[in-house]
Design goal:
heterotetramer; A mainly alpha (295); B alpha/beta (244); C mainly alpha (316); D alpha/beta (262); A: 295 residues; mainly alpha; ABC transporter involved in vitamin B12 uptake, BtuC; two-stranded antiparallel ribbon; 2 strands; globular; C: 316 residues; two-stranded antiparallel sheet; 13 helices; 77% helix
Chain lengths: 295, 244, 316, 262
């Protein structure tokens, strides 16, 4: 009994960790621009596929591959912002979101051209026996995924709560005019937020690929799940995204395990709807806060 | 300190500011009065770099600022307290103040920044009481003080104030004007002030300019403007006759 | 109806009558039919979003309800298709009420996710419990009315575009009425609307129902036209596609919904020649058109016409 | 006409209003003044149904209205304007007024869509009435401009016009003179007086511009920290020492700063 339960729990935590990272990625751009960047899922795919390219195809050492992958993703984020977001002055929010969808289609097209439609995989970061807890098996890579997610969360939490740059980013979304007037280079902050969110997404992709494989069109699914995670916890709250991500991951794996795999998305969505209907701003965002922000 | 020469600004096709020239000398309080839509706010936003002028020159401390970005202009020493205060509502009071020091914020400056924050708290003690409160939950007067405090955190040489008295109770308006004078007297701050409340503005100012439909139509020592019949009729209302 | 709308309306009728005559090619008409079906969904979403300011990412759900309910009722119970289509519209309307009462308290991104959740739940239901499961089912009867069965491509073209014209007529009248004004006012300030005594909640629910009914109608027509349906046509992807149509056409103008639907339906067909590159080119065209025609195709076109006219008047 | 009876309201522990009571007489212009954060706008929001008070009653024309939704209260005859103008900015001036006619007209979703004859008749009626109101508030010449393009002074007046379109018995004005200059404020005062005298509409006014308040109001209630500290005619209130300390400031005007210190 317990063994099976734990097994589902661990697999839920693994997927949930990636959802959480995607959710945080959404929050980073949202907190700096109020834009929901729906190409967020593609960043994860880029992470997985580029990591395969550097480590398997080019046979570069592990850490070098990781570094190159992160840099690549950062550059993609940078180009995306400079080419599509920055040129638009006083944009309409809905339009911006549609543009991110259009960009995600472009990225998918590029990924398909370069990698084809096959799934890719590479070995776990460390070799070694899986850990067993009460009979439930945890792959070492699972521990990596959870550990890396935790690390990212702590770093980002520190960045947004404790550093002036983090606060300045938030200020940019709240009121770009006022942000400029206190001397913040808003355009630069927006750029940094896109680069940062791309990197966070790519890290998720690097970590998860050995477990769940990666293919060119996985982006939209990840984006939707991550978006749900961010909304569930309350948009803009990283704690919320983490909780939402893990909750969705665990609900999915429990439903798939105990009820029926076809319903795994439904249960998570129903919980999401219930949360929204009873707490319209998500778990961690207060009503006052929602009123103080425009979106 | 700040010299505008023949500045033209277009908003799309609208010629919002027409050949405006203006001087702000160091240590002065200069006020710009005029009716709504005359272009006062536009002019201020141009000085702080939010809007680009089409023609003319804007020189601050012997430096051409007409092509500079807003964040560079803040670094050069101009701080702008915008109309409607525009505090960062979802952030708390202290974070709002800290962000004011963004242009010179660094780890090694942190003790100095802390001192500055304390100094702002000593000017506006109410802000200290509210320091952990979200800025959006403050009253109008408190938000105005926070906006001024945030601008001062940038350590400006020139402070641009856009309608600081708007929507405030009479007693608070008096207080805000008192603060403006105090800032000028104790810190030698130069102030360019836009006001609907023309009488109060002219009372504390040294020089005044009157802007109508994008043009400067009158200028001179504030005292003279207070006595000027046209100004009295248009901007000061009836009470001025017996008051002076 | 205003003058511009009347002209546009006559042009629409004219094109509808003329197109099958000018181009008999089944392929053209088929693409035309799908454009018309999408236009119906897009018009509903345009009223909902462009006028009332309520985002929806769940239109595929209502579209799916229309297709499945009408197909099942006509195929398995043998109801006349007009009746089954109307029945499907009623089911969609009920679903819209159930969803909108809690969801319309939400705003912006939160509302988008709530409607997205609804659409996905419908999709999962169709997958799990719909006839044929994920692989769908066929043999759905063709559309018939008063004993006359529509089974030719031309017939369907006239039927569907006839309905588009009718729906457009109704919608244009609606948005130029007292109700349409109220919807736009809600978009601008709910606070002020309440203070004016407008029943904001009721209006929002009504417009949500309207968009659901349009989508359901489109879904029924789709099912009876292609005679085979599977859940994959009713996924989130479709909701996003409709959203794209409305934005590309121009969210502030109902004609934009029709133009956007046609453009987004025809574009992939034109891009077939690029084979492997089609996704990339499609994405690039979308990105660029969104960036350079920010307001959408129709509003920009109107501006251009106005400018030309102004120019002509100035010359006289 | 309107009685506020022992209204209390607090937000998360902070008391905004404590046992507030006062009456507004039919046909009066009642001014509500007090420092920022004294609870004036909160009180307006309670009367118009946006907030529910923790305690107390609001009685309008003999009827308790605190439990009613804003829409219902508006339909009972209380209309209002907002501190931060809440016009429909992307709609034209006339359309703004026409929305104000909404609650007084009937045609529904379907009859509008099918353009039935009575819909057309009603639409013409709305149009005519709205033009009349525009003329009344001297904004006829702005009819087809977008509301957001008007200068703030005219926006404030348009907002009052929109409130009039609902045919109210009582209008609540929240800082109508904020951001207006002397001339515009004068003009606004004339319109408010005209509305009271010609249309017999009762007015409750929250305002900081003392010139305006003293010139047009019949009675003034002063709030401070959520309590009524004075209630009376403008002259009485102006002389009340408590009001001077809390709100008006001492006789001394703005210090002649620059001149005084150099």
């Amino acid at each position: 009994m317990l063994t099976v339960f734990l097994q589902f729990l661990f697999s839920g935590l693994t997927v949930g960790a990636v959802y959480a990272l995607v959710g945080i990625g959404f929050n980073i751009t949202y907190n700096a621009t109020s834009i929901i960047n729906l190409a967020q899922g593609e960043f994860v795919v880029i992470g997985g596929l580029m990591m395969w390219f550097f480590s398997e195809s080019l046979k570069l050492p592990f850490l070098v591959s990781v570094a190159f992958t992160i840099v690549t993703a950062g550059i993609v984020g940078l180009f995306m912002e400079r080419l599509t977001i920055k040129p638009l002055k006083n944009p309409d929010l809905l339009l911006m979101i549609m543009i991110t969808i259009a960009v995600s289609i472009v990225l998918r097209g590029l990924l398909m051209l370069s990698f084809g439609k096959n799934p890719y995989v590479y070995p776990s970061f460390t070799e070694g026996e899986p850990v067993s807890i009460y009979g439930a098996i945890i792959q070492q890579q699972t521990l990596w995924v959870i550990g890396i997610t935790g690390f990212c969360i702590i770093v980002l939490f520190f960045f947004f709560k404790k550093t002036i740059t983090g606060k300045a980013m938030l200020a940019c979304a709240v009121n770009p005019t006022a942000a400029q007037l206190v001397g913040i280079n808003v355009s630069k902050m927006v750029m940094v937020s896109f680069v940062l969110s791309a990197i966070v997404g790519a890290i998720g992709g690097i970590a998860i690929t050995p477990i769940s494989l990666m293919e060119y069109d996985k982006g939209p699914m990840l984006a939707v799940k991550g978006f749900c995670a961010a909304i569930m916890g309350g948009l803009g709250s990283n704690r919320g995204a983490v909780l939402g991500g893990f909750l969705i991951g665990i609900l999915e794996s429990m439903t798939a395990g105990y009820i029926h795999s076809g319903l795994k998305d439904a249960v998570a969505l129903i919980i999401l709807l219930l949360i929204l209907f009873f707490k319209p701003a998500g778990i961690f965002v207060s009503k006052t806060m929602l009123q103080l922000r425009k979106f | 300190m700040l010299i505008l020469k023949n500045v033209d600004i277009f908003y799309g096709k609208i010629h919002a500011i027409k050949r405006v020239s203006l001087h702000v000398n160091k240590g002065e309080i200069v006020t710009l009065i005029g009716s709504n839509g005359a272009g006062k706010t536009t002019l201020l936003r141009t000085i702080s770099g939010l809007i680009r002028s089409t023609n003319g020159s804007l020189v601050f401390d012997n430096l051409d600022i007409s092509k500079q970005s807003p964040d560079t202009i803040v670094k050069k020493g101009i701080s702008h307290v915008p109309e409607g205060r525009l505090v960062f509502k979802p952030l708390n009071v202290e974070d709002n103040l800290l962000l004011g020091s963004f242009n010179w914020y660094s780890f090694k400056n942190r003790s100095e920044i802390k001192n500055d924050v304390e100094m702002i708290y000593s000017i506006f003690p109410i802000l200290k009481k509210r320091k952990k409160q979200l800025a959006g939950t403050l009253s109008g007067g408190e938000q105005q003080m926070l906006a001024i405090g945030r601008a001062l955190m940038a350590r400006p040489k020139l402070l641009l104030l856009d309608e600081p008295s708007m929507g405030l109770a009479p007693i608070v308006i008096k207080e805000i004007f008192k603060y403006i004078v105090e800032l000028r007297n104790t810190f030698g701050l130069t102030v360019l002030l836009i006001e609907q409340n023309a009488r109060s503005a002219l009372r504390i100012a040294h020089t005044g300019y009157v802007l109508e439909t994008g043009r400067i139509i009158l200028q001179g020592p504030a005292e003279d403007l207070l006595l000027n019949k046209d100004v009295q009729r248009a901007y000061l209302g009836r009470d001025v006759d017996y008051e002076i | 109806m205003k003058k511009g709308d009347s002209i546009a309306f006559f042009v629409l009728i004219f094109l509808i009558i003329l197109l099958p005559v000018l181009s008999g090619s089944t392929y053209t008409l088929t693409v035309g039919i799908f454009s018309g079906i999408n236009a119906l969904v897009a018009i509903g979403l345009c009223i909902l979003m462009g006028y009332a300011g309520q985002v929806s990412l769940g239109q595929a759900g209502f579209y799916g309800i229309g297709a499945y309910v009408s197909s099942v009722l006509s195929l398995h119970i043998g109801l006349p298709i007009v009746i089954s289509t109307i029945f499907a519209m009623i089911v969609a309307a009920i679903a819209a009420v159930i969803l909108s009462v809690p969801a319309l308290r939400l705003k912006g991104h939160y509302l988008a996710v709530a409607t997205l959740g609804f659409g996905e739940i419908i999709y999962i239901i169709l997958n799990e419990w719909g006839p044929g499961g994920p692989s769908g089912f066929g043999d759905i009867p063709h559309f018939s009315l008063l004993g006359y069965t529509v089974d030719s491509t031309t017939g369907y073209f006239y039927l569907i575009w006839g309905l588009v014209a009718a729906v457009m007529f109704f919608s244009i009248n609606l948005i130029h009425s007292r109700t349409g004004r109220a919807l736009r006012a809600i978009h601008e300030s709910e606070l002020a609307c309440n203070a004016m005594g407008l029943n904001v909640v009721a209006l929002k629910i009504k417009v949500f129902i309207l968009s659901a009914v349009y989508a359901s109608l489109a879904g029924s027509l789709y099912a009876h036209y292609v005679t085979f349906i599977s859940p994959s046509s009713f996924s989130l992807f479709y909701s996003i596609l409709v959203l794209m149509m409305v934005i590309v056409g121009g969210i502030t103008n109902l004609w934009g919904a029709i133009i956007g639907a046609v453009v987004i339906t025809v574009l992939p067909e034109l891009l077939r020649r690029f084979e492997e590159l089609d996704v990339l080119v499609y994405g690039l065209i979308l990105t660029l058109s969104l960036m350079f025609f920010k307001k959408g195709l129709v509003p920009i076109l109107i501006e251009k016409i106005k400018k030309l006219r102004g120019f002509a008047v100035a010359k006289h | 006409m309107l009685s506020i009876k022992e209204i209390s309201k607090s937000f998360g522990g902070l008391t905004a209003l404590r046992q507030i009571s006062f009456d507004v007489k039919k046909g009066d212009i009642k001014a509500l003044i007090g420092p920022n954060g004294a609870g004036k706008t909160t009180l307006l929001n309670i009367v118009s149904g946006i907030y529910q008070p923790d305690n107390g009653e609001v009685i309008f024309l003999g009827e308790k209205i605190v439990h009613l939704a804003p829409t219902k209260i508006a339909r009972k005859g209380i209309s209002r304007t907002f501190q931060h103008v809440e016009l429909f900015g992307n709609m034209t001036v006339i359309e703004n007024i026409m929305v104000g006619r909404h609650a007084k007209t009937k045609s529904g979703f379907f009859s509008s869509g099918f353009k039935l004859p009575f819909v057309m008749k009603e639409e013409r009626e709305i149009q005519r009435k709205s033009e009349e109101i525009l003329e009344y508030i001297n904004l006829g010449h702005r009819k087809d401009e977008y509301a957001s393009n008007l200068p703030i002074g005219e926006q404030r007046i348009l907002e009052i016009g929109r409130a009039l379109a609902t045919e109210p018995r009582l209008v609540l004005l929240d800082e109508p003179a904020a951001g207006l200059n002397m001339r515009e404020t004068r003009n606004l005062g004339e319109i408010i007086k005209k509305i009271r005298e010609e249309l017999k509409i009762t007015i409750v006014l929250v305002e900081h511009d003392m010139d305006l308040v003293m010139r047009i109001s019949d009675s003034v209630t002063v709030l401070n920290f959520g309590e009524v500290i004075a209630d009376g005619t403008p002259l009485e209130v102006q002389k009340n020492p408590e009001v001077i300390v809390a709100y008006l400031g001492d006789e001394e005007d703005i210090p002649r700063g620059y001149n005084a210190h150099t």
